[in-house]
Structure formats: structure tokens, C-alpha cells
Amino acid sequence: MIWTRHHTLAAGLALIAATNAIVLAGVAYNRSGEPDAQLRLTDRELNAPYSWGFAKENSGLAMQLKWSLPVPARPPSDDGNEPGIAGPWGESSWLDRAKLAELGFDLSHAERIDDERYAEPLPRDVLLVLELDGPAYRGALVRAERRIAALEAKAAAQPNDRSAGSVPEWARRMRDELRDHASRLYVVDAGLDRDRLRAKYADRKRYAIANGRVNVLRTYGTKYRRNEVRGYVEQVNVDELNVPVELRATIGPDKGFEAVVSFGRRLEPWLVSATPRPKVAR
């Protein structure tokens, strides 16, 4: 048989068709049966990408999932500063040495810079727990209010000390941003056993389990601070959700909305529905 351009084209089309069939079968399987979780997210947790306005006719438009990490709970310093919210590279209150060991990281020599037995670890694929409007978010609100209270108390205790000043505007802005605009979706735990995580976080309207990746960051100390390691969430594998054409009249960069997001059998999410809601003015 002589291989011609027609054969090449036919083989390419067949490969594309087979790939699409596999993808569609995976989507169908993921969405079959009862969803593993169903969260009601808003424009606080779902952001339009910067390219939205340039590609609004694109059938592949997606919203970006916004999430954060709870930070360690510790008393505010003298100036009222304390941890508030953190991004994926932030220090987390739960991703400690015990949790890293549970996830399979070997940290036995991690804090010794010159120890050749320790190699920089590779990231590990894990299951992450996403909590919506729960204790992690409410704890961040409490810390923001406590920060303002500490600054107010300092100013009241030293009325003649100009250095004490008053509550700086940044503290109020951070509190207002957290209360009215910031995402309420937090990554609060990780594990390797889906059933164990679901048993611990049974509320499927507040907790979703998603695939993700965790890694270890080693920091080199000084004479004032020893070497240390800490974990961070490198990624959540559901950073984006495709927006169906029928929902684009409701979901967009300048619109307030509430969207029902389901997580399926493969823990992959999709947008089910969306309704308008008043957008809080900035």
C-alpha cells in the first residue's frame, strides 16, 4: 500500500475524532450520577480573565477560580500587624511538617543546607479540600477586626504620642476588601485518601475535594533564624471553569452573579447554572 496525502489526512482526522471521543466520554463519566459536591460560588470566587473582553465570542471562555490559604493564628504585633490572608505561596496554618510527612515528603534532613543526603523534593499530587465560607474565612475576618481593635487600643492608650497615631487607612481597606470582595474559598486540608477526606468533611455544600499539587519550600536561615521548611499549595487543578454559551449573559467580568458549581466523579467541576445578584460597589 502506498501512503498518500489522503491517507495522512484520513489518519489525522481519525486520531482527532478518537481523541475527542475519549474526552467526551471522560466528561460524561465525570458528570454521571450524583455530584461529589456542589458549591454556590459568586463573582468573589470566580473571576473573568483579562482576555475576556477580547475573546467574548470564543466558545472556550473560562472563569478563573480564586482561592486562598488560612494563615497561622498568632497574636498581633505591637503595631497591630498579624497574618490576614495568603495566596498559594503563603504560609499556611495546616500544611506543617506532620501534614507534609503524611503526604509522603521525607524531611529528615531538610533543614541541613550542606547535607547531601537531602535532595530538593518533587511536587506531589494530592487531594485538596476546598472550604466555602467556613471557619477559615471567618477566622480571617476575626483577625482583620482584631488588627483594627489593637491599633485603636494603642492610639487610645497613648493619646499624646504622635507615633501611636490612629488606625491607618490600609487596615480598614484590608478589612473591607476581605469582608465585601475577597474570595471565601480556602484550601484547608490535603490528603491521599478520598474516602477519609470526605468522611472528615461531610458537608458537600461547603466542602469540595479537588485534585492538586503540594510542594516544599526550604528557606535558608541566618544567625538569627534557623533553616526551616514549609509546605505550599503549588496548584489546584480546577483553576478555571469553562462558561457555557447560555450562561454568558449572566456571568461576566462586570456582573454580580451566583453560580452553582458541581464536582463530579473524577472531582472535575463544571458550571451548572447562574443567577444575577447585586454587585457590591467598591
Task: Please provide a written account of the structure.
The chain is α+β, with helices and mostly antiparallel strands and 282 residues long. 26% of the residues lie in helices and 24% in strands. The chain contains 5 helices and 10 strands. It has helices spanning 5-30, 97-102, 135-157, 169-180, 194-200; strands at residues 37-42, 46-47, 62-65, 124-132, 185-191, 207-219, 228-236, 240-242, 257-263, 269-276. A hairpin with a 5-residue loop joins strand 9 and strand 10. Helix 3 packs antiparallel against helix 4. It is globular. Mean pLDDT is 78; it is low at 73-89.
DSSP E strands, number? 10
Mean pLDDT, to the nearest integer, reads 78
* Fraction in beta strands: 15-25%
Number of helices: 5
Task: Strand order, main sheet: write it out.
Answer: 5-4-6-7
Main β sheet profile: 4 strands, antiparallel
Helix-strand topology string? HEEEHEHHEHEEEEE
Q: Could you tell me how far the N terminus lies from the C terminus, measured between alpha carbons in angstroms? A: 69 Å
Structural class: alpha+beta
| Unreliable parts | 73-89
* Alpha carbon gyration radius: 24 Å
Shape: globular
Helix share of residues?
A: 25-40%
What attributes characterize this protein structure?
3-stranded antiparallel beta sheet, 4-stranded antiparallel beta sheet, globular, 282 residues
Task: Set out the fold topology.
Blueprint: H1 5-30, E1 37-42, E2 46-47, E3 62-65, H2 97-102, E4 124-132, H3 135-157, H4 169-180, E5 185-191, H5 194-200, E6 207-219, E7 228-236, E8 240-242, E9 257-263, E10 269-276
Antiparallel strand pairs: 1-9, 2-3, 3-8, 4-5, 4-6, 6-7, 9-10
Helix pairs in contact: 3-4
